[in-house]
Design goal:
The chain has 217 residues and is mainly α. It is built from ten helices and no strands. The protein has two domains: 56 residues, Arc Repressor Mutant, subunit A, CATH 1.10.10.60; 135 residues, Tetracycline Repressor, domain 2, CATH 1.10.357.
Length: 217
């Protein structure tokens, strides 16, 4: 527990028109647009932000902005993918962390998930608008996120099988079930109900219950 990442480490981390292009779109410009959009979403909310306002923040015309993103939903999807990538990188680090058995690794995984989502909600209190839009319009992105997290959990379960801690015949299906039990810790709107310390206690209790259920008998 002492070597787990804490929430402060996460804070250091979170009108379609055709105009001739002088230069092809670049990843750097896309990142600038995403940063500008994220700042505006945090200040004014996702629903009240327009493409024209985002373009103005970046110092380009609205017509030029559409060369990089088809619409505001496309920008929202880009921000979601970036957020999911950051979270998956943190969760994957748990799998590489030395000195943990499978039970401790599963607890560390759940706590890392809780701390990341809670920090995002604390830093971006308006994030629910964006999450709801992505969930409603881009289920492929949500499924990609779930698939990545299921895969990581399955790796922990397989490690537990090898060490003799767990007895899991189907690590993929069980990984999906474990992920379903973590829904409380994955949805931003839930994170606004309790302080981080309460969620950490809940996460530890859930991890303990899961480990007992997975244990080899």
């Amino acid at each position: 527990m002492n070597n787990l990442l804490n929430i402060h480490s996460y804070r250091s981390i979170l009108a379609h028109m055709s105009t001739p292009a002088l230069n092809p779109p670049t990843d750097d410009v896309r990142e600038q647009i995403l940063e500008a959009a994220n700042s505006r979403f945090q200040q004014y909310g996702y629903g009240k932000t327009t493409m024209a306002e985002i373009a103005s923040d970046v110092g380009m015309s609205a017509a030029n902005l559409y060369r990089y993103f088809e619409n505001k939903q496309d920008i929202g999807a880009g921000l979601a993918l970036r957020c999911f990538g950051q979270k998956e990188a943190l969760l994957r680090e748990v799998l590489r962390r030395p000195g943990l058995n499978a039970a401790a690794r599963l607890e560390a995984f759940i706590l890392t998930l809780v701390r990341y989502v809670h920090s995002q909600c604390s830093d971006q209190p308006r994030i629910n608008e964006l999450v709801e839009d992505v969930a409603g319009n881009r289920p492929d992105i949500v499924e990609r996120k779930h698939q990545g997290e299921r895969s990581l959990i399955a790796e922990i379960l397989a490690e537990g099988n090898r060490s003799g801690e767990f007895d899991v015949p189907d690590v993929v299906t069980t990984g999906e079930t474990v992920l379903s039990t973590l829904a409380l810790f994955s949805v931003p709107i839930f994170m606004q109900t309790y302080p981080l310390e309460v969620f950490e206690r809940k996460a530890i209790n859930v991890a303990s219950l899961l480990v007992r259920g997975l244990a080899k008998r």
